[in-house]
Amino acid sequence: MGRAERETVARGKRLQEAARALAGDHERAVGAVRAALEPLHRAAAREALDAIPVTRLQEATGGQLRLGAVERAGFGTVAAVLDAGAYRLRQIPGVGQRTVDQILSAARQLAEAAGETVAVHLDVDRPEPGTTALVSALHVLVQAGPEARRSVDEATALTGRLEPLLADARPAARRSGMLLAGRARRARAREAVAAIGTLLDEAERAGAPERFAQASVDLLRGAAGDLAAWTDFEVRSAEYYALLGEIVTRAPDTAAAQGFLPDDLAERVREQHLDDTHRRVSLRGYQAFGARFALARRRVILGDEMGLGKTVQAIAALAHLAAGGRTHFLVVCPASVLVNWTREVASRSTLRVLPLHGPDRHDAFADWRERGGVAVTTYGLLRHLPAPEADRLGMLVVDEAHAVKNPQTLRARAVGQWAARCEHVLFMTGTPMENRVAEFRNLVRMLDPEVADRLGDGAGPVDPVAFRQAVAPVYLRRNQKDVLTELPSLQHTDEWEEPSAEDERVYRAAVADGNFMAMRRAAYARPEASAKLGRLREIVREAGENGHKVVVFTAFRDVLSTVEDALRTEEPGPRVPYGPVFGPLNGSVPPARRQQVADAFTAVSGPAVLLAQIQVAGIGLNLQAASVVVLCEPQIKPTVEHQAVARAHRMGQVRPVRVHRLLTTGGVDERLVRMLDRKARLFDTYARRSVLAEATPDAVDVLDPDLARQVVEEEQARLGLGDGRPAQPS
């Protein structure tokens, strides 16, 4: 082996060193990101644990722990328990070593889960030293671009190929090496040198050495400055987050769960105790924070996006006040959600609930005034109720509060009178108000006139940072994408409505005729008086105002036509924010055309509505553009609903999916839901245990032959109707 071979080996070593240097430069850049992220992540995880009430530890132990003594001792959060440690917890009267071990084990599990799921938010409007360090570190990698990443991958692969070849070619690297090597070793050395030469020729022809050098320069250049890094982040934040996701995957952060409130305000909210004595449901971290916000600030607007559980947060606040001795609470809401409120309060708390509605409303009001509880009434009835004595009302909750944005209306005046006499007032609205300052200011004025004055006159554009700072003392809003860690989550809501008088009349006629299918469609037979249709329009409108697409399913063509007529009455615009309406898709639409309609629905930029017969669109179409699903009535088979929902909640869906099933009380819907719940549980059991059951769902959820007849006969008996004619189930 001569000089040429030694030069080939030397060139191979230089290329290997350049490749290793590039990999090292990249690793240092990535390490800088991890180093900047770690304290931010640690702080965010700590905040998450501060927001988790100690009662959540019961979930980790199957409800076996008794935590009352621990909470009374001042350890109200998981973070407080971890800080206390075993010694301080053992000092609590009635808490033994076994309980301490269980508490700490459960707390560590939650801490580990928080560490895995918490994320760091990069707020360009509020840069801090820690986030600035992270953005600057990311800026180096973003500026180096995907070319640097590809060069690193190429360098890593090249190093892997060169390393064994250079090891075999070591005897050829020096003059005496080949003389001292054995015959087999010399043969391997010659082959290795030849392979190195071929590899070098390929790399040089491809320009690898130059790319490695340039990538190293880019990675070593550093950020141009903090301001430049933040400016670049603002322009292309998606690239920064994508890169951060590659380095370490994190879930939505605690700052988002706290509505990005100022730090000092958020700290005061976190310090607010939240008693769960009268609550029957555990809260997610952001929900507990929302309830604490309402209690700490006393008179606030909870503006969470639809689907985040504003009702549960309100109930948590009511339960806390009840534990403190308050006895009387009032919820004001549209008539369409009154039933939901009474059911939610009854199922999620131990509080007494009384609907102030219907013919017995005056007796119910007298009973409430005497014995207390949570009274639920409508805007229309509120103005006919006498305002309470000062300090008598523990909390006033106003749902869909944007309904009183006009102070000249009778309903707004009534709400204002009640709010003025109550220390704790909670306005709830999922409609974003940031761009409607004049209307928003009217709501705020009922709660805090000084904050309202700081919002200006609403005549011109509003700076978002200034707006958030001004309204922070009274306004908390979180979006699903910011606080829900599931990707995506699936939330089901049964929307119970009281039938209107006209709904009831049509339904009774269908029951008298023994017509099962007419009973199921009766709620839509008189559109101008339909309670279900009114709620459907509210759901579609709110979804549109939040920028979401909606798909509406029903089993019946005539119901589909009714819904279409209701939604197409006006052209899209400020008064109709849900965008264009597509469909309806029914059995007469060819499959190819169905997909075209679905594609057009998906292609719309912004909100839109798709109307579809559930048997048609529930199978075969990809509707993941929709994040809100409305079921106009309960279906006979649970799998029909499941398959329809799966059109939206499937791979490729990046948003949480909310399913609203419209139901009327006291009739066929209520009976069907009870029956179908039993069938759904049976199906779930089989589906978990049997591949065959998953492949053949009809084996467990087919319609019983006598189900329709049974429902008709029970309803005829309940209403005292029918002349003995048989049911018509088909």
From TrEMBL:
The keyword Nucleotide-binding applies. Residues 535-704 form the Helicase C-terminal domain. Its EC number is 3.6.4.-. Gene3D superfamilies: 5' to 3' exonuclease, C-terminal subdomain, P-loop containing nucleotide triphosphate hydrolases, Tandem AAA-ATPase domain. PROSITE patterns: HELICASE_ATP_BIND_1, HELICASE_CTER. SUPFAM superfamilies: P-loop containing nucleoside triphosphate hydrolases. Residues 291-450 form the Helicase ATP-binding domain. CDD domains: DEXHc_Snf (cd17919), SF2_C_SNF (cd18793). One of its GO terms (molecular function) is hydrolase activity. Keywords: ATP-binding, Helicase, Hydrolase, Nucleotide-binding. It holds the Pfam family Helicase_C. This is DEAD/DEAH box helicase. The lineage of its organism: Bacteria, Bacillati, Actinomycetota, Actinomycetes, Kitasatosporales.
